[in-house]
Request: fold
Amino acid sequence: MATIDSSAAASQDALFRKLGIATQQNAADRGAKETLGQDDFLQLMITQLQNQDPFAPMENGDFIAQMAQFSTVAGIKEINESLTSVTDQLKWSRIATASTLLGHSVLVPGSLARPDADGEIHGVLDLPQASSDTVITYTDATTGEALHQQNLGATGRGLQGFGWTELPEAVRDGKRPVRISATVNFGKGPEAFGASVYAKVLSASADGTEAGAVKLDVEDYGEIDATSIVRFR
Reply:
């Protein structure tokens, strides 16, 4: 009986070699694996065929279904590997795109601003409704000294831009951060309203996560998610 078993095992190994499949000995040499590969699947398939009931053999449809299932799993694995590669490429592409913003200014919610390359300060108000009286005040962020005030008058709803273009020399050098405050009147008297200002991008980097979110280091505001930036100049 042992001779028959040995012959059967030898025949099976010979068949595996002809098909280019690793033999049982080679598989043992590789050690235990957590996942099954193509060789493992074909070994199981051939073993199943050799040991099936000759009076009730596997239906052709079942055989094809198993092959199709393995092909589907293998295809999904290849797709996952491809998507991982694409994700890595997109990560570096986002960093490269974000790096083009270096030296430019991006619009961020906040009150601190510095003169841009043209020696000007610009910002935006996003009004939910019309304001009958809109005033922008510029003060020294360190000392609180009043520097300038603009009365924009009546303004409509939506994005309303503002800017201070004739800055004194002491402010134009950018060493003194300027604080911007806005007051609006929606019909209930003057009230404070938050502005968004243009601030300079100092650097760009990925946060180290698998998604590789790109962060912009913005002057006076620190790191900001690049996806939150909607305007730049």
In short: The domain at 105-228 is CATH 2.60.40.4070 (Immunoglobulin-like).
